[in-house]
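Title: Comparing notes on inverse folding

I've been comparing how different people in this forum approach sequence design from structure. To keep things fair, I'm posting one structure and asking everyone to reply with a full sequence. Here's the target:
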């Protein structure tokens, strides 16, 4: 997609999480008379493609306001997310932000893994006439609203529930525990780095809340009525769950789903998602190659956050890295979401709608 003279309201920077999806969208972008590229051929070139705009997006609010955005692909390879690729992946994210700047986007959301790479370090881009967000505030709103709704539907009362947060010292994990700390029976906190977890748990204990924590999930999982999983890694091992536990799996790659096959009685849904009741348009229409959900017009909370910022004209960095998400911001984002016709997504997981 070429650079243009008129500005765009927002840009979404993202990456793909598996090779079959990449094969589908790469072949869709090539002219129809060209031979289909195999996954093997694509793997040989994919990581060398510079970040670039792939399609434009148009979104309309029930208030009548219409905004235009662009999806910028980083071309980060799905099997190169580990620490040894950190430097080259960070460079790809920075190049993607440059691409957004060239396309004159006023606001940029760093989607999925790209926000974790920069960790809210937006300083390099202060001179640009645009604002950035990780999108984690609205993601947290949808995670929490999903948990509240699931609890109600399963006749669970939150202040009688023990809630386990996996990824408790992360941006979304801390935002969830801060929101829930006064409303649930006990918070069970899990992360791998013991010192960071201990410091955070001690801080909450000093505030007077009932907290149990461990770096070993086995110490916590069996007690949890509700589990929120927002860890940025796949290496999670979980067993011995409480009967009929509610699980909000909001991490990527999906944290828990494929580890729970023997637990047929739990209620597991993909959290952090919204549904744009007014729809949206992709130009060109790559929906078939970028959209894999069981209901129409679903979107990640992080992406919807920048859409709401554009509708509301918020010209300041909104979600800016670990520890900065407040209850007020979570509630404000959810209010804007409803105002602009964007609802919590229906419950679903990889098997379909629940
Ligand atoms: N649904 C959506 O729309 C949406 C939007 C944005 C982000 N996300 C996803 O949400 C997740 C969290 O994002 P974030 O920005 O909060 O990430 P973050 O700040 O990097 O936090 C990740 C947390 O996970 C912990 N962790 C990592 N591996 C773990 C493991 N194996 N077991 C237990 N804890 C583990 C980390 O602590 P240690 O390193 O100490 O373990 C940290 O507490 C990511 O997967 C992200 O892709 C979803």
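Reply #1:
Here's my take.
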């Amino acid at each position: 997609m070429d650079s243009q003279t008129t500005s765009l309201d927002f840009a979404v920077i993202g990456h793909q999480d598996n090779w079959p999806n990449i094969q589908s969208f790469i072949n869709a972008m090539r002219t129809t008379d060209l031979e289909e590229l195999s996954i093997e051929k694509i793997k040989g070139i994919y990581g060398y493609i510079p970040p670039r705009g792939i399609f434009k997006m148009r979104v309309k609010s029930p208030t009548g306001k219409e905004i235009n955005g662009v999806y910028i692909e980083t071309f980060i390879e799905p099997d190169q997310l580990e620490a040894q690729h950190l430097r080259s992946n960070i460079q790809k994210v920075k190049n993607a932000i440059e691409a957004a700047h060239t396309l004159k986007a006023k606001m940029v959301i760093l989607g999925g893994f790209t926000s974790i790479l920069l960790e809210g370090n937006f300083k390099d881009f202060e001179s640009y006439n645009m604002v950035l967000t990780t999108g984690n505030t609205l993601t947290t709103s949808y995670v929490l609203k999903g948990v509240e709704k699931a609890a109600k539907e399963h006749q669970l009362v939150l202040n009688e529930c023990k809630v386990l947060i996996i990824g408790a010292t992360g941006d979304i994990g801390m935002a969830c525990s801060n929101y829930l700390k006064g409303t649930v029976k006990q918070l069970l906190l899990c992360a791998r780095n013991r010192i960071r977890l201990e410091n955070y748990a001690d801080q909450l204990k000093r505030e007077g809340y009932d907290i149990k924590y461990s770096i070993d999930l086995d110490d916590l999982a069996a007690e949890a009525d509700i589990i929120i999983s927002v860890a940025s890694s796949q290496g999670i091992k979980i067993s011995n769950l409480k009967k009929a536990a509610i699980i909000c799996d909001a991490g990527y790659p999906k944290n828990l789903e494929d580890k729970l096959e023997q637990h047929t009685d739990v209620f597991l849904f993909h959290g952090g998602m919204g549904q744009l009741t007014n729809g949206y348009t992709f130009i060109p229409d790559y929906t078939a190659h970028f959209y894999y959900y069981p209901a129409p017009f679903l979107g990640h909370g992080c992406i919807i956050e920048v859409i709401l910022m554009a509708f509301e004209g918020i010209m300041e960095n909104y979600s800016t890295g670990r520890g900065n998400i407040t209850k007020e911001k979570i509630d404000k984002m959810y209010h804007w979401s409803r105002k602009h016709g964007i609802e919590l997504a229906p419950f679903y997981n990889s098997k379909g709608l629940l």
